[in-house]
């Protein structure tokens, strides 16, 4: 059977015939039907008497399919079917627990979920917060079960912007909750937790949870997120019309001699580029009733785009012990060596009263009893180590001995101008090179520009230079940080790339926060406090980095109940730390320096005798240049009255 597709290149009939015939009039209609019936580029047919002229037409395009409406999608970070295997913690104090998250697409938060711990009592409220700590929505959980996942929907969806950080939380007045240590990030569709410090908390009434734990806790608080997934319009597959079955047998004629020998320029590329010189002398009489089997194989096809299905990626979270700390939501807070601490630290055991019998060389008793105390020596303290050199800021003050409240903070007689808060409870600096001199900020100072200088000023809250994933450089001199009364759980000054000199930090749970490179703290005074559940530190580190200098400061943690250490440096990312000429008192251990690398110098420091709970020092002694450190007594004005003994390094 002869093929019915157009002639091949060269125009030779497929049956090899060279006869030429006139076209019958009835052929025109058959050709029109046949050509139009195929959804590939076709030609208009024009008759000239008995002859036929075929003019190529533009390629036929399928009609544009109407765009399908966007398809709503909804997801959460964790499945409601997921059974949480996490330890239960009973702090017995009101606490707000949350998760920081972001979305890759614009969408809306429609509700909040949390995993209820067995034994947890009372009614719970859920909240949604922006990165500035503003509450965007609040809802009460209805019809709670005894434990497991609880869910509540907001009265109306809250629109969220892609790429921004938000916090979802719930408040427990009973203070019993689940928490998993070392939890990694979680992702589900466009929704994911922040890369670090995702789990946050805050003790007290329902408020923005700012603090995070250095061990990376997950408190299993979830958001319900809805977005629209755009579905690409579908294009129907081309269909073909059957070849006519009742058409008279066509005959072919010679191409008119008056036509040009070259074909039109817009003939499809798979057609010959010139007109054939002969048509077939005959066509089969039994035209097939269905599509020819040898139609061109390169016809375009159009497949509908499949609907996108969001697959939740579960994240394995180890089950650690819990240890919340005191810092904003965006940073975790390192804690002491014990892997699990209760809500409140046990009351430290006071060491036995030391004997006054002098010994020529203090040694440990082989029986483990307390060491005798040598006879008191003159009040002169050991000669301070000359390194590091302390540059004096022009116009600054200096303390005759160790820093005290009288020679740090806002200089006496300074007239302060109040700055109106411009960012929630904060005053935010956004211009690089800004200098604040003689100002009073009745809240936090948020620094989001580089090379900011603060002088002779009072900040009632904290000074923080982290905003989102970025930190900004600043210097602060002769300024007071902290409220005049009460206790602010959060650190006074942080996080990285800052210099603090003659700064008075008062009534803060933590004094300085070191989280990054290039931190210098000199000639400053820190008086600490604590709230229930706090773990107070004079300086604490987390991902500290390089170039920490803590030189000639006074850190007083005496009488504080919930404590860790005045000097708490245990971050494995510490590289090159200098701790010199400081007067410290209090803490479980007064000086802790572990896990650090590089050049580590601890020299000329003095620890007040019997002020610690467990011991004066806990350190990796074999890594440290340890010299001229001692145990001393002081008077009420922080003057050293005696050197009790030299202080060797102890692990």
From TrEMBL:
Q: What parts of the sequence cross the membrane?
A: 27-46
Residue ranges occupied by any DUF4082 domain in the UniProt entry = 87-221
What residue spans carry the Basic and acidic residues bias annotation?
80-92
Polar residues composition-biased segments:
354-365
Q: Where is this region: Disordered?
A: 1-22, 58-92, 233-414
UniProt keyword Transmembrane, yes or no: yes
Keyword list (alphabetical) reads:
Membrane, Transmembrane, Transmembrane helix
* Highest rank taxon of the organism: Bacteria
Residue spans of biased composition, Pro residues class = 381-391
Q: Does the keyword Transmembrane helix apply?
A: yes
Q: Where is the composition biased (Low complexity)?
A: 237-261, 288-330, 340-353, 366-380
Q: Which InterPro entries match?
A: DUF4082, Pectin_lyase_fold/virulence
Output this protein's name: DUF4082 domain-containing protein
């Amino acid at each position: 059977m002869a093929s019915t597709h157009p002639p091949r290149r060269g125009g030779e009939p497929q049956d090899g015939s060279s006869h030429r015939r006139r076209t019958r009039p009835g052929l025109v209609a058959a050709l029109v039907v046949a050509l139009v019936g195929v959804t590939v580029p076709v030609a208009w047919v024009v008759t000239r008497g008995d002859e036929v002229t075929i003019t190529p037409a533009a390629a036929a395009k399928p009609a544009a399919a109407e765009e399908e409406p966007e398809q709503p999608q909804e997801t959460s970070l964790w499945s409601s079917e997921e059974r949480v295997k996490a330890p239960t913690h009973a702090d017995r104090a009101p606490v707000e627990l949350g998760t920081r998250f972001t979305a890759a697409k614009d969408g809306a938060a429609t509700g909040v979920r949390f995993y209820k711990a067995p034994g947890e009592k009372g009614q719970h409220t859920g909240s949604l917060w922006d990165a500035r700590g503003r509450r965007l929505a609040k809802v009460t959980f209805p019809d709670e079960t005894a434990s497991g996942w609880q869910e509540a929907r907001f009265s109306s969806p809250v629109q969220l912007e892609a790429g921004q950080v938000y916090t979802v939380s719930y408040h427990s007045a009973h203070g019993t909750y689940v928490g998993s240590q070392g939890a990694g990030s979680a992702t589900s569709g466009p929704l994911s937790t922040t890369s670090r410090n995702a789990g946050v908390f805050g003790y007290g009434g329902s408020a923005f949870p700012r603090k995070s734990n250095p061990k990376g806790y997950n408190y299993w608080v979830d958001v319900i997120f809805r977005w629209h997934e755009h579905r690409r319009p579908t294009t129907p597959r081309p269909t073909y019309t059957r070849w006519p079955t009742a058409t008279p047998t066509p005959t072919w004629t010679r191409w008119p001699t008056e036509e040009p020998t070259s074909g039109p320029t817009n003939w499809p590329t798979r057609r010959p580029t010139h007109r054939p010189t002969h048509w077939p002398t005959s066509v089969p009489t039994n035209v097939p009733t269905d599509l020819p089997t040898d139609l061109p194989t390169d016809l375009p096809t159009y497949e509908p785009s499949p609907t996108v299905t969001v697959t939740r990626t579960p994240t394995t979270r180890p089950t650690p012990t819990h240890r919340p700390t005191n810092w904003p939501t965006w940073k975790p807070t390192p804690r002491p060596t014990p892997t699990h601490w209760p809500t409140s630290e046990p009351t430290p055991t006071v060491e036995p009263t030391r004997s006054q019998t002098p010994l020529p060389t203090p040694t440990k008793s082989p029986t483990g009893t307390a060491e005798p105390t040598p006879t008191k020596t003159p009040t002169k303290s050991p000669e301070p180590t000359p390194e590091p050199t302390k540059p004096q800021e022009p116009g600054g003050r200096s303390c005759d001995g160790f820093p005290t409240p009288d020679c740090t903070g806002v200089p006496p007689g300074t007239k302060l101008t109040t700055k109106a808060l411009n960012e929630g409870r904060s005053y935010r600096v956004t211009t690089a090179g800004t200098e604040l001199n003689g100002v009073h900020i009745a809240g936090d100072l948020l620094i989001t520009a580089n090379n900011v200088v603060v002088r002779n000023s009072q900040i009632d809250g904290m000074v923080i230079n982290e905003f989102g994933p970025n930190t900004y450089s600043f210097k602060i001199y002769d300024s007071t940080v902290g409220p005049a009364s009460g206790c602010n759980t959060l650190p006074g000054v942080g996080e990285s790339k800052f210099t603090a000199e003659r700064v008075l930090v008062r009534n803060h749970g933590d004094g300085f926060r070191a989280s990054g490179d290039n931190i210098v703290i000199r000639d400053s005074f820190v008086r600490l406090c604590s709230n229930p559940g706090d773990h107070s530190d004079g300086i604490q580190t987390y991902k500290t980095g390089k170039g920490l200098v803590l030189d000639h400061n006074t850190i007083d943690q005496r009488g504080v109940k919930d404590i860790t250490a005045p000097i708490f440096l245990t971050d494995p990312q510490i590289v090159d730390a200098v701790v010199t000429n400081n007067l410290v008192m209090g803490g479980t251990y007064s000086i802790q320096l572990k896990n650090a690398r590089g050049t580590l110098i601890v020299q000329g420091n003095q620890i007040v005798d019997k002020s610690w709970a467990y011991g004066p020092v806990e350190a990796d002694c074999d890594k440290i240049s340890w010299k001229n450190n001692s145990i001393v007594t002081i008077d009420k004005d922080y003057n050293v009255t005696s050197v009790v003994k030299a202080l060797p390094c102890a692990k």
